Amino acid sequence: MQASAHPHHYVDQQVHLSIGVNAVELAIVIVPSSQDGAAIFSTIDNNGDGVVSDDEGRIFATNVVSATRLTIDGQAFTFILADVGIPDETTVASGTAAITVNASAELRLADRQAHSVDFSITYEEFSHDWFVQPFLYPNLLGKIAQLEIDRSDRAGKVVVRFSNR
Prior knowledge:
The longest helix has 13 residues, at 54-66. It contains four helices and ten strands; from the N terminus they run ββααβββαβββαββ. By secondary structure, the chain is α+β, with helices and mostly antiparallel strands. Strands 5-6-2-1-8 form a five-stranded mixed sheet. It has a five-stranded antiparallel sheet with strand order 4-3-7-10-9. The protein has helices at residues 37-44, 54-66, 89-93, 138-141; strands spanning 12-19, 23-31, 68-72, 75-77, 80-85, 99-106, 114-121, 131-136, 144-151, 157-164. Helices cover 18% and strands 42% of the residues.
């Protein structure tokens, strides 16, 4: 069972960007406001039957993940959708539900090199604002000598630069 959020008065959109030596993982969380929850649910529930089917959930999640860009050292990577979680209509409409989308991209970071991880998300169906929070897996964190995180003035974009020891 998923825990409920406190009622929101705005649509809260966050991305947890977890960077490791062999993968980058996304945990996308969208918490609708109580004013927008019903409309957000109906956007995802394509046939309007009050239930988000697996296909409807996957279509929504694919659209969200398709609006992301990941480049590492200038090379583009594509995220593979892992799963999506969409609570029931009443919970989403109440503004206490967290809609989740998880995806990952496989990679291999070279040792003893500086790296730049550029990430952005431009999905704006519900809100233009995104907060992107980078995290580093222990298999990478232990190798870093310098770390810089640059959040652009534009919401939904972050650049993580680091050099290995």
